[in-house]
Write a structure and sequence with these properties.
The protein has helices spanning about 20-30, 60-65, 80-90, 100-105, 110-115, 140-145, 150, 165-190, 200-205, 210-215, 250-260, 275-280, 280-295, 300-305, 320, 325-330, 370-375, 380-385; strands spanning about 10-15, 35-40, 65-70, 90-95, 120-125, 195-200, 235-240, 245-250, 310-315, 335, 345. The protein has about 400 residues and is α/β, with parallel strands linked by helices. It folds into 2 domains: about 10-210 and about 355-385, 3-Layer(aba) Sandwich (Rossmann fold), CATH 3.40.50.10540; about 235-315, 2-Layer Sandwich (formyl-coa transferase, domain 3), CATH 3.30.1540. The protein is elongated. The longest helix has 24 residues, at about 165-190. Helix 1 crosses helix 8 and helix 8 (about 165-190) packs across helix 9 (about 200-205). It starts with 9 loop residues before the first strand and ends with a helix.
Length: about 400
């Protein structure tokens, strides 16, 4: 079996919460060794978000498999030597401290790269290293609000945040892809680089379509729940047995198929003959569709939609996603080890034939401290006596 693409790559990460841990977890899945530096006693504060996974935090379980947990007091006298030795053998250093903290700890990108030109550094922050918002608190909801995501999510009556930490995930994925690009560049040039990723910049990039729509169109896209401001029928409808079906009829060909296969009993109605007409008469259109759907079960409705190759989906609750037939058929679940025993996990989205992702264990706080420090030439007992670990 071929090795994984990042076998032999060592990542040192001073990380917590979501964005940076997501980036390094993807690196670990692809074979990198990730040394997760945590605060003694408490560790990554995401460890304490909840206790829903057999006593462990759902966020931490999601984001930290395959890493080695090393507890270091970065303010101790011994910390510079400890971190220096780790970084001497590292390929990548990731940190998501508050702005300015890495420099105060002697871990700023410019300082540590001065003696390690092959090192790749990735700084993850809320708003970036400059500008009036540099030092602002940057929790995910706050970024979603500042970047405008909340303004286009929800219903006309009530804006809403995304149900997942969209800003954190966006920044984590840009950090991941940026690090991969920097590793590739280093193979060609022999030089590392300093990367900077912010949650705000990441989410503003994701807001591209609404920003163009508002900037050039003069008005923002309307908040329409699962509907669409410029397309109809589009959104969630109920069958007679309560099954919720999501439709996206996006062009005249699909509308013709929808008429023929799903509502053949309808007479021609000029109100709905064009896309703009269907949007203008959305309320009447949706009432007519609801009347037809109320006479069908979910299975009957799906059969009609499938026969016409009409884009649709079931609106599933999370419990249903866990038993989704597509995930089951493709064997997308596996188990990873943890301090409380095996935990079910979904496989990473990146797949390579014959090269399964590593899917390492979820570490206990400080589980690897002694082994890693001894490997790097330290006496763990002596450092512990000094309060450094």
């Amino acid at each position: 079996m071929r090795s994984l693409p990042l076998d032999g790559v060592t990542v040192v990460s001073c990380e917590q919460a979501v964005a940076a841990p997501l980036a390094t977890r993807h690196l670990a899945d692809l074979g990198a060794r990730v040394l997760k530096i945590e605060r003694p006693g408490t560790g990554d504060f995401a460890r304490a978000y909840d206790e829903t996974v057999r006593g462990m935090s759902s966020h931490f379980v999601w984001l930290n498999r395959g890493k080695e947990s090393v507890t270091v007091d970065l303010k101790s006298d011994s910390a510079p030597e400890v971190m220096g030795r780790l970084l001497d053998r590292a390929d990548v250093f990731v940190q998501n401290f508050a702005p300015g903290v890495s420099e105060r700890l002697g871990l700023g990108a410019a300082e540590i790269r001065a003696e390690r030109p092959r090192l790749i550094t990735c700084d993850v922050s809320g708003y970036g290293s400059s500008g009036p918002y540099r030092d602002a608190k940057a929790y995910d909801l706050l970024i979603q609000s500042e970047a405008g995501l909340v303004s286009v999510t929800g219903t006309a009556e009530a804006p809403a945040k995304s149900g997942i930490p969209a800003a954190d995930i966006g920044a984590g994925m840009y950090a991941f892809s940026g690090i991969l690009s920097a590793l590739y560049d280093r193979e060609r040039t022999g030089e590392g680089t300093a990367l900077e990723v912010s949650l705000f910049d990441s989410l503003v990039e994701w807001m591209g379509y609404p920003l163009y729509y508002a900037g050039y169109g003069g008005t923002p896209p309307a908040r329409t729940g699962t509907s669409h401001a410029a397309i109809a029928p589009y959104g969630t409808f109920k069958a007679g047995d309560g099954t919720e079906i999501v439709l996206t009829v996006q062009n005249e060909r699909e509308w013709a198929a929808f008429r023929a296969h799903v509502i053949p009993e309808w007479a021609t109605d000029e109100r709905f003959d064009t896309g703009s007409g269907r949007v203008a008469h959305r309320d009447e259109l949706e009432r007519e569709i609801a009347n037809v759907f109320a006479k069908l079960t979910g299975d009957e409705l799906e059969a009609r939609l499938t026969s016409g190759r009409i884009a649709h989906a079931r609106r599933r609750e999370l419990g249903e996603v866990l038993t989704h037939p597509q995930l089951t058929a493709r064997e997308r679940f596996t188990e990873v080890g943890s301090p409380v025993g095996p935990i079910e996990a979904t496989l990473p989205p990146i797949t390579m034939p014959g090269r399964p992702s590593r899917m390492g264990d979820i570490p206990a706080l400080g589980e690897h401290t002694d082994a890693v420090l001894a490997e790097f030439g330290f006496d763990p007992a002596q450092l512990r006596g000094q309060g450094a670990v």
